[in-house]
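Sample entry (466 residues):
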Amino acid sequence: MQKQRLIIVAILFLVAIAITILTTLPLQLGLDLKGGAQLTIQVQPNAEGVVVEADDTAAVKRVIENRINGLGVAEPITQLVGNDRILVQLPGEDPEQAERVLGGTAQLEFRPQNPGTEAEFQEKYALRRQLDAQLTSLRGNESPAASDAEIEELATNIDSLDQEILALFEPVGLVGEYVTNAQPAPTQTGNSWQVFLNFNSEGAELFAEITKGLAGTGRSVGIFLDDALLSAPTVGPEYTAQGIAGGNVTITGNFDIDTASDLAIQIRGGSLPFPVAVVENRTVGATLGQDSIRQSIYAGIAGLILVLIFVAVYYRLPGLIADVALVVYTLLTLACYSLVGVTLTLPGIAGFILSIGMAVDANVLIFERTREEIYKGNTLYRAVESGFFNAFSSILDSNVTTLIACAALFFLGSGLVKGFALTLAIGVGVSMFTAVTCSRTLLLLTVLGLPAVRQNPKLFAPKAPN
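Predicted structure, serialized as tokens:
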């Protein structure tokens, strides 16, 4: 009895957490339900004038898909359009952020500063920060204090200064290809953000060699993104012997959370093999009309209500308990969708509704087995225990085979098929949990704690002997 009460308390705690999650982390809707950003990206010839072929565009598409994965966008759509264009649709994404992340080349490079350039670098770097502050102020000023021509001229001067600063550093071939991972993180003060990098073995050796030569000299390691200086840290004299070994590097540059995350995504996604241009960027509405969405929601709610009524009428008291378990199942499943970041599309909703059917199926097996035990003359407590024990193998077999099918759909499918597989797999896992914990515990607690119920087996099976 005490064990069942503790389980009920744990279930109520999980329900409270689920409700909190659903109120703080709303469910993400797919492009067909919510809309999002649509970008058309054109692949440009590189500096050598190489003509872009279909294979080159496919290579760019793979890099862009890696960056989309870093954004955490579920159910994206990427399509090749002709030989040199890629269509990208991102549910619920901000078009400006999508363009910034997907269209950037993200050519990361580490360069040691040339000897004898210390004074010149400090002068140019101070001027660079001054011009950047002016440009930020002008762009953020809502009043027409500066014309577009003045802003463009200032941006041109910054680009020219970036090239002059770049010339003060020697290229040694340590580029973003050697980076194995990149993650944003807040600084110790919490006022800004930074990016942690991990090099592979070859990159770690190159970085150690660079820092060994700069240790104690006062010269900097220039960290450049697309030829623009991000950060120029110096190396202390304690690294004179071996340099900074281990391959772990921190990039600082007055980042906020958005710019640090964007940079990490671009680095993890890889450098684009060809330059690209975003030729179209627009917000798209839901591909399904509001009437279709509303009808789908009504159909799902109606189906759930009919199932709850049928189970309660046919299975009596166990049916009412199963209805409570199904409500718990629904809350826990939706909370899991929010935590995992599932983007609900209509196929995803179909997977969720199908998983409700799996949850009902588990309870049906348990209740039928319980009725058989009651008809054999067993007590209610023994009938409930035997019903769960005898039905568990069937429940486990059916759920495992469904999860195997979900795994095949998820790893071999793409796009909407993956969404269906993920929602169904989560639903099956939660349904098994609620069936063997919530339903079982409530039944045992009812049988053990209420003598009137224990003495009336007809509440469980209408043809049971008195």
